[in-house]
Amino acid sequence: MASNMDREMILADFQACTGIENIDEAITLLEQNNWDLVAAINGVIPQENGILQSEYGGETLHGPAYGPASHSTAASSTPSSSSAFRHVVPSRQIVERQPRMLDFRVEYRDRNVDVVLEDSSTVGDIKRILENELQIPASKMLLKGWKTGDVDDSTVLKTLHLPKNNSLYVLTPDLPPPSSSHSGALQESLKQNFMLIVTHREVQREYNLNFSGSSTIQEVKRNVYDLTSIPVRHQLWEGWPPSATDDSMTLAVSGVTFPCHRLTVGRRSSPVQTREQSEEQCTDVHMVSDSDGDDFEDATEFGVDDGEMFGVASSALRKSPMMPENAENEGDALLQFTAEFSSRYGDCHPVYFIGSLEAAFQEAFYGKARDRKLLAIYLHHDESVLTNVFCSQMLCAESIVSYLSQNFITWAWDMTKEANRARFLTMCTRHFGSVVAQTIRTQKTDQFPLFLIIMGKRSSNEVLNVIQGNTTVDELMMRLMAAMEIFSAQQQEDIKDEDEREARENVKREQDEAYRISLEADRAKREAQEREMAEQFRLEQIRKEQEEEREAIRLSLEQSLPPEPEEESTESVSKLRIRTPSGEFFERRFLASSKLQVVFDFVASKGYPWEEYKLLGTFPRRDVTQLDPNKSLLEVKLYPQETLFLEAKE
């Protein structure tokens, strides 16, 4: 059993050899091999690439990260100490250390550009990528943010000993700052997607191509070359705006119509060549192998047919990648993948989901239980000998295409480029765990393509099957159907649970609605009672105010009455006896010369205002309140005595 010190050395040596930076993942792999360094490395590095040996002879060997080993050290080595890296240094016959990928987040004004490069690249390589992305000449850039001092365009990234993730920023002191409105509109145009509808004139075929605003006209023409086999120099275009004068211009500034623009392309007719021209071109044929791609694709000028070149099919020579390397947007990468797949294998193929892997999960797993599907992930690899057979004979078989379209959401990724492979393994680790990621990482190139069948569960996503490329149509269909049976059983349970949950939710909604209606009724009843009580209170207040007012008037009248005359008064006195509606009587003496209004005030002071009551005489019966109140009692014949009674007015 290795000690803690030995394990630390083994872990460091294992990471240096394999390039695996995740410590947890490296420890897991070592524990699976009982901390046997050689066995762990052999499990990660394919055997045909060369197996690291635990012993070596006395010659001087050079490891990729530790420098030359001396003769004395080699001679003193013992086979029993194979757990230390110095006894497992790979020789020149053994595969070189895998390149280390570095991630850069580069900030320029209000933009961020992600760049992924091998550590063998230079600083100038980063600037060239930024030149295409930012449309800024590399000579005008100052790339800042390095942790070390002197850095120029020729500096190799490996020599800077950088971490995997780095942040840089670009300064352009020689360029004037753009106006905010123009810069904002340009940045927005660069992010937009343009649909170019390109018609191939000779075959009357139409292609719908999606490009970002940052793509150049040259890139469009190269893509059209892949589709039509017309070399760029032989392409005759119609429909480009007058402002599109330079193939290096981006679509955002070329003047093409957003979001859709129509173009027509045909083959430019070649003039009749003279004998001298033919001899000159034949001489140039020998230089094709040393020329760049543009010269090679124009080999038709040298009398070589477009269909074949030197006995090799031209489609094989100029086969475009299925997916751009370091694609920023997964949706754009899948658009190119689908277009290239159709170009190679025809239009009868699975319908690939266009979008990120997370979006594919949402589409497949997170809808209604009845609408959920399995997720099939197709992993392509152009360098596998099985790829063409698998794609053309199995993946494009009508039975497979039909079954996938009915029961699966199909998502694809190209594992040919190392950057794209690393990106998928990162996504795989995040969504499926390190075990599945390690399974895919250890697959050999000739075991591709791979077909992963994924089923969504409540808590995690389960990989039901990993199908390798060395299969048949019948076996592929059988494994798809087997996965579908497992999924159908799980789906029925999910549907039952969902129906029960919806039933419970419906009952709860009905109860909540009944409760809400009850609360509304109670609130309405309470509000009505409150309104009634408020009205009663208001009326009571009015009544009280009126009573208080009447009492004040009564007291005022009572105080304003003249004093009652004495019975022995020398003046003429009238004695009045008044009967109330309740049958009570009250009497009072008045001077005969007093006005009738004094009698009215006296009656009102007793609580019977003459506005509400009338005072009636007996013989003859008359309404005294209708008489002139300014006349004296003598004048209205209420002298020397009279009996009157009160009656409420109607």
UniProtKB/TrEMBL annotation:
Protein origin, superkingdom: Eukaryota
Domain UBX residue range list: 569-646
Nucleus keyword on record: yes
UniProt keyword terms in alphabetical order: Apoptosis, Nucleus, Phosphoprotein
GO molecular function: NF-kappaB binding; ubiquitin binding
InterPro entries in UniProt: FAF1-like_UBX, FAF1_2-like_UAS, FAF1_UBA, Thioredoxin-like_sf, UAS, Ubiquitin-like_domsf, UBX_dom, UBX_domain-protein
A GO cellular component entry from the record: endoplasmic reticulum
Biological role stated in the UniProt entry: Ubiquitin-binding protein. Required for the progression of DNA replication forks by targeting DNA replication licensing factor CDT1 for degradation. Potentiates but cannot initiate FAS-induced apoptosis.
Protein name: FAS-associated factor 1
Organism: Bucorvus abyssinicus
Gene: Faf1
